[in-house]
Amino acid sequence: MRLTGLEIVKWILVVLIVVFLVHSFTGNRISKADFDTVWDAVTADADMSKMQEGSNQMIRRLYGLDPARFDGIRLYYPKTNMGAEEILLVRLKDTGDQEMVRSAMESRKKTQMNNFNGYGTYQYAMLEKSIISIRGNYALFVSADKAGEIGQEFENAL
After folding, report:
1. Are 69 and 90 in contact (CB under 8 A)?
2. What separation in angstroms does the CA of 2 have from each of 5, 16, 62, 95, 138?
């Protein structure tokens, strides 16, 4: 079977359209969701009594992130050194910062796992099940008993 030049062009266009559609539906879609609305959804199932709100200084100290770089950022971290419950929600100004934020979250998780390795078995297990989720212009780190449910609420809120 021999294809004509016009048929080849048609097939190339079909392939390009499919690639475009796949990228559009799975790529880094920018969410227009309000930061406070996403935060409320994320914390609805979380036990916030074990956490305290973190200041901009604490965000810098624990994650090495500059809060001024983001459209929104909120941290709740353990009230005591024996806790591993933590939530960090970030709304990015630039999706190009996704990897920087992911790296900061992974570094924090690794630090906490090292802190609890060998003696804090419950906390260590919680950290193993923690979630780091980057979706377009939003990023979430959650270490909590209901991390899976909280992660799902995050996805739904976007």
Report:
1. no
2. 10, 22, 63, 45, 49
Four-residue CA torsion sign, 9, 13, 16, 22: negative
Q: Render each residue's pLDDT in the chain as its tens digit; 158 residues.
A: 576 777 887 878 888 777 666 655 555 689 999 999 999 999 998 999 999 999 999 999 999 999 999 999 999 999 999 999 999 999 999 999 999 999 999 999 999 999 999 999 999 999 999 999 999 999 999 999 999 999 999 999 99
pTM comes to 0.84
Compute CA 61 distance to the chain's CA centroid, rounded to the nearest angstrom. Answer: 19
